[in-house]
């Protein structure tokens, strides 16, 4: 069993809001007077642990009682919405901000990469920036010199190494900046959302490098990202933070799934008891629409593998009419993915119901909504129930080391044949 | 299950320390210091036509102004020394002090982007500023030596080497420490209160007038001389001229006062800087 390399114990961080920096001289005097002269408690800084978070209007708990251990060589991911305290936590572990209470203990050298291009100066050349940025991130001269060629090669800026970086394209700048950081050799590497910048190709390269660092070289990584696929693949364990508190800790796939499930804004069904309150018109009133995911695994997340059944019921008030129902699926950007038309049915007044199943391994990951359309006599619109169902399809890739957004409106799994025959092929004589 | 005994290398708690980074840690960041000094130089002369000659122009221009205004127009006595040498000595030492102090007094404010993203001992930044200014000073000092040589060769300036030449390194060190001490002290204040930077700009200009930069201490009327002598910079300037040009009004006691003041003030400021440095990032 590997030893713990970081121990985080009951870390809390309180931020004062509002008047910090302006007009606080009076407060500071008051504070000093109360604390040292009159021997009272700090009037501006109550460490009242019983108070629920966010109780005081001018204070906010960015973190509250977070504890965990990280083992040597392990990579730990942090997920959570914006403002959940992920970055604050990484800043505390990087020694940039002080915790309000609690302690972090660790072994070995820590390098933090909270931003791409820390210490870069636009006026200096690539070469000068590599050195200064390397020093700032904690390398020494010999280390930078030894890695210099590798850094330049990784970033692919060979011809521009003696050009001021202000003349670089933003892509080159980011590549160079990441290249420096990627060649650090700390015991613990702290990475915060650096993948948000740069193109897909660059992101792939970064993640590949980080995998290499964690798996081949056995370094410990603390990793914050909004790219769930990356957290899932890169990290052994993950922590889900919400409003400064730790909601979940465990194997990364389990934590990521729970987090995603909490995010999915679902409209998986609507029901109306009487035709009067139901949406529709004098011909049609909807009774029920429903989306049933056939989830095999227990976490209840709709992912690209999940078949989805759309069910609907409506009251029909049209006599002797041939009706079609259409299911129109839109992506969240409003692009129509498909418009699926039912066969025509000759209907009497009464209840009409139907269902249709979208097979698994067909939709790409993303957010979708469904509009139901009803038409009579094959083409005359009767009523559209707009955006009545909405759902998210999450990504799922087993054993694929490819982190970018999968291309395409759909991601079907059609039978695909690939064979290898033994045949001599000669290219050169 | 027994808890494995682990020895931790470091610990981060809410406690802040007066002692700051250990010397060993500082030593491990020596390349950063070196790199920053180099960067300061490169940045200053990037895309300028005259480049590093800019180190020499400002003091020379100031010299011309002083000679014309204070020497010819106002007619302040410079003792037996040629006005050019007298003023130039004052100018270069003052600009060393001034640039070092104002350059370090806004350490936190100017480096938030860095301090909020990466950890290294914060003291490295002010140290790099002082180093840069020290190099500037040495270049200007060479210019001064050239001027002295000119006056000695062609103008019949009498120079006598005496033991006081040994005060020169002491004076330089004390000036640097005092500037750094004041810079560290005010960097904490400017981080918290923005108005402090105005106070600094105004204050340092006024401070020049109670420092024997454009006048010798001996020319100050007896009644207000105590005011100038109270200024710990005064003995340093007088000793500087005494050690190089052989004229200055300073006693060993006054110099000792300066040095003691400097060391005490620097020590206190360093403790304050260390103690507050970790917390300031929340308020800058």
Automatic annotation (TrEMBL), chain A:
<dbReference type="InterPro" id="IPR027417">
    <property type="entry name" value="P-loop_NTPase"/>
</dbReference>
<keyword id="KW-0067">ATP-binding</keyword>
<dbReference type="InterPro" id="IPR003593">
    <property type="entry name" value="AAA+_ATPase"/>
</dbReference>
<keyword id="KW-0547">Nucleotide-binding</keyword>
<dbReference type="InterPro" id="IPR015860">
    <property type="entry name" value="ABC_transpr_TagH-like"/>
</dbReference>
<comment type="similarity">
    <text>Belongs to the ABC transporter superfamily.</text>
</comment>
<dbReference type="InterPro" id="IPR003439">
    <property type="entry name" value="ABC_transporter-like_ATP-bd"/>
</dbReference>
<dbReference type="GO" id="GO:0140359">
    <property type="term" value="F:ABC-type transporter activity"/>
</dbReference>
<dbReference type="Pfam" id="PF00005">
    <property type="entry name" value="ABC_tran"/>
</dbReference>
<dbReference type="GO" id="GO:0016887">
    <property type="term" value="F:ATP hydrolysis activity"/>
</dbReference>
<feature type="domain" description="ABC transporter">
    <location>
        <begin position="45"/>
        <end position="268"/>
    </location>
</feature>
<dbReference type="InterPro" id="IPR029439">
    <property type="entry name" value="Wzt_C"/>
</dbReference>
<dbReference type="InterPro" id="IPR050683">
    <property type="entry name" value="Bact_Polysacc_Export_ATP-bd"/>
</dbReference>
<keyword id="KW-0813">Transport</keyword>
<dbReference type="GO" id="GO:0016020">
    <property type="term" value="C:membrane"/>
</dbReference>
<protein>
    <submittedName>
        <fullName>Lipopolysaccharide transport system ATP-binding protein</fullName>
    </submittedName>
</protein>
<dbReference type="GO" id="GO:0005524">
    <property type="term" value="F:ATP binding"/>
</dbReference>
UniProtKB/TrEMBL annotation, chain B:
<feature type="transmembrane region" description="Helical">
    <location>
        <begin position="165"/>
        <end position="186"/>
    </location>
</feature>
<keyword id="KW-0812">Transmembrane</keyword>
<dbReference type="GO" id="GO:0005886">
    <property type="term" value="C:plasma membrane"/>
</dbReference>
<dbReference type="GO" id="GO:0015920">
    <property type="term" value="P:lipopolysaccharide transport"/>
</dbReference>
<feature type="transmembrane region" description="Helical">
    <location>
        <begin position="198"/>
        <end position="217"/>
    </location>
</feature>
<dbReference type="GO" id="GO:0140359">
    <property type="term" value="F:ABC-type transporter activity"/>
</dbReference>
<dbReference type="Pfam" id="PF01061">
    <property type="entry name" value="ABC2_membrane"/>
</dbReference>
<keyword id="KW-0813">Transport</keyword>
<keyword id="KW-0997">Cell inner membrane</keyword>
<comment type="similarity">
    <text>Belongs to the ABC-2 integral membrane protein family.</text>
</comment>
<feature type="transmembrane region" description="Helical">
    <location>
        <begin position="255"/>
        <end position="273"/>
    </location>
</feature>
<keyword id="KW-0472">Membrane</keyword>
<feature type="domain" description="ABC transmembrane type-2">
    <location>
        <begin position="50"/>
        <end position="276"/>
    </location>
</feature>
<dbReference type="InterPro" id="IPR047817">
    <property type="entry name" value="ABC2_TM_bact-type"/>
</dbReference>
<keyword id="KW-1133">Transmembrane helix</keyword>
<feature type="transmembrane region" description="Helical">
    <location>
        <begin position="134"/>
        <end position="153"/>
    </location>
</feature>
<keyword id="KW-1003">Cell membrane</keyword>
<feature type="transmembrane region" description="Helical">
    <location>
        <begin position="75"/>
        <end position="97"/>
    </location>
</feature>
<dbReference type="InterPro" id="IPR013525">
    <property type="entry name" value="ABC2_TM"/>
</dbReference>
<feature type="transmembrane region" description="Helical">
    <location>
        <begin position="48"/>
        <end position="69"/>
    </location>
</feature>
<protein>
    <recommendedName>
        <fullName>Transport permease protein</fullName>
    </recommendedName>
</protein>
């Amino acid at each position: 069993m590997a030893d713990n390399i970081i121990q985080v114990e009951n870390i809390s961080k309180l931020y004062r809001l509002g008047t910090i920096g302006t007009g606080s001289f009076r407060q500071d005097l008051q504070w000093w007077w109360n604390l040292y002269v009159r021997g009272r408690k700090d009037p501006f800084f109550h460490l009242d642990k019983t108070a629920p978070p966010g109780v005081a209007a001018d204070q906010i708990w960015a973190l509250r009682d977070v504890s965990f251990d990280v083992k040597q060589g392990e990579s730990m991911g942090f997920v959570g919405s914006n403002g959940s305290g992920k970055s604050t936590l990484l800043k505390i572990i990087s020694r940039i901000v002080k915790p309000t209470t609690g302690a972090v203990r660790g072994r070995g050298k820590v390098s933090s990469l909270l931003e791409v291009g820390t210490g870069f100066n636009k006026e200096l050349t690539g070469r000068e920036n590599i050195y200064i940025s390397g020093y700032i991130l904690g390398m020494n001269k010999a280390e930078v010199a030894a890695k210099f060629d590798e850094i330049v090669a990784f970033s692919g800026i060979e011809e521009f190494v003696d050009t001021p970086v202000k003349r670089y394209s933003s892509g080159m700048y980011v590549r160079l900046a990441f290249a420096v950081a990627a060649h650090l050799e700390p015991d613990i590497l702290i990475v915060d959302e650096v993948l948000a910048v740069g193109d897909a190709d660059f992101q792939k390269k970064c993640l590949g490098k980080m995998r290499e660092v964690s798996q081949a070289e056995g370094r410990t990584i603390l990793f914050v990202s909004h790219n769930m696929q990356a957290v899932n693949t890169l990290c052994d364990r993950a922590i889900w933070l919400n409003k400064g508190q730790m909601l979940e800790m465990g194997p990364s796939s389990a934590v990521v799934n729970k987090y995603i499930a909490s995010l999915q804004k679902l409209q998986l069904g609507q029901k109306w008891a009487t035709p009067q309150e139901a949406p529709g018109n004098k011909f049609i009133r909807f009774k029920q629409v429903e989306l049933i995911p056939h989830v095999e695994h227990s976490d209840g997340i709709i992912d690209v593998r999940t078949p989805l059944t759309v069910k609907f019921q409506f009251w029909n008030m049209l006599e002797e009419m041939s009706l079609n129902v259409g299911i129109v699926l839109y992506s969240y950007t409003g692009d129509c993915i498909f418009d699926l038309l039912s066969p025509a049915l000759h209907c009497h007044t009464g209840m009409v119901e139907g269902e249709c199943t979208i097979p698994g391994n067909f939709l790409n990951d993303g957010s979708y909504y469904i509009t139901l359309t009803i038409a009579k006599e094959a083409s005359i619109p009767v009523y559209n129930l707009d955006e009545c169902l909405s759902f998210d399809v999450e990504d799922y890739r087993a054993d694929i080391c490819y982190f970018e957004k999968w291309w395409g409106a759909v991601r079907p799994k059609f039978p695909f044949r690939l064979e290898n025959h033994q045949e001599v092929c000669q290219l050169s004589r | 299950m027994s808890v494995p005994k682990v020895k931790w290398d470091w610990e981060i708690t809410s406690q802040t320390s007066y002692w700051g980074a250990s010397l060993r840690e500082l030593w491990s960041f020596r390349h950063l210091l070196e790199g920053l000094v180099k960067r300061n130089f490169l940045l200053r002369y990037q895309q300028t036509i005259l480049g590093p000659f800019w180190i020499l122009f400002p003091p020379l221009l100031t010299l011309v102004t002083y000679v014309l205004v204070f020497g010819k127009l106002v007619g302040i006595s410079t003792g037996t020394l040629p006005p050019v040498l007298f003023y130039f000595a004052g100018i270069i030492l003052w600009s060393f002090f001034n640039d070092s102090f104002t350059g370090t007094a806004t350490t936190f404010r100017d480096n938030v982007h860095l301090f909020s993203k990466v950890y290294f001992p914060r003291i490295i930044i002010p140290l790099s500023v002082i180093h840069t200014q020290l190099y500037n000073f040495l270049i200007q000092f060479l210019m001064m030596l050239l001027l002295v040589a000119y006056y000695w060769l062609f103008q019949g300036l009498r120079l006598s080497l005496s033991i006081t030449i040994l005060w020169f390194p002491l004076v330089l060190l004390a000036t640097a420490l005092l500037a750094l001490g004041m810079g560290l002290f005010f960097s904490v204040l400017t981080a918290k209160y923005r108005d402090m930077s105005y106070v600094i700009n105004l204050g340092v200009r006024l401070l020049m007038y109670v420092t024997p930069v454009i006048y010798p201490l001996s020319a100050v009327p007896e009644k207000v001389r105590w005011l100038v002598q109270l200024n710990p910079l005064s003995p340093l300037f007088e000793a500087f001229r005494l050690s190089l040009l052989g004229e200055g009004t300073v006693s060993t006691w006054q110099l000792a006062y300066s040095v003691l003041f400097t060391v005490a003030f620097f020590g206190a400021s360093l403790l304050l800087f260390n103690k507050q440095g970790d917390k300031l990032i929340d308020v800058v």
